Structure formats: C-alpha cells, structure tokens
Amino acid sequence: MLEDIVKDFELIYASQLRQKQRESRALVIDIRDRKEYESEHWPGAVSYPYDQLERGTARLPKNRKLILYCDHGGGSMQMARMLGEQGYHVASVVGGYEAMKKISKNYFKNRENM
C-alpha cells in the first residue's frame, strides 16, 4: 500500500514546492547527476547526487526539512524513504524534475540566467 511506502516521508506536488520551501525554510536537494544540476536546477537547490547520498558521504542537517527531487520522482522517493528511516524530516516531489518543469517553465536556474 502507498501508505506503507510513504510512512517515513512526505509526498509533495511540484505546484506546492515554492510554498513549502518558503514556509519551512526547507533545503531543496537535487539528487540528479551533477551535470544535470549544473545544466538547470531549482533556485536555491543544492546538488547531492543519489550515489553520494546512498554512500552516506553527504552532510545533511537534521534540523531542517529536506525536499528531494530527481528526474521523474522514483529515485527521490527511494532516497526520501531511506533518509526518513534515519530520522530526517524529508519530502519527495511527485513526478520530479519533469513535473516541476511543466508547472514552472521560467523558474529554473540554468547557465544562461544564473
């Protein structure tokens, strides 16, 4: 059941991201490949690729909400579950980068507008 899958983290929709980021001073984390992040990412997002988080080499704050996104949402859900089990307050963006891009076409940071 979906409730069992998401018991350790929250799911948020792309349309909620800006509001959630402001309200909770959340740290938005792009878990895609570093090159994808450098090409284009959500304003204020930091890059911690999936494999770096999986190895446990990233230093993440436990006193802030973490909002993860990947390409389509699957990887960020897996990572959110893992981090949630470790005691982090974490959320995953449903649909990931692709969903975010559809609702916020002009909001992303890329090399041309950084």
TrEMBL record:
This is Rhodanese-like domain-containing protein. Residues 22-109 form the Rhodanese domain. InterPro entries: GlpE_sulfurtransferase, Rhodanese-like_dom, Rhodanese-like_dom_sf. Pfam families: Rhodanese (PF00581).
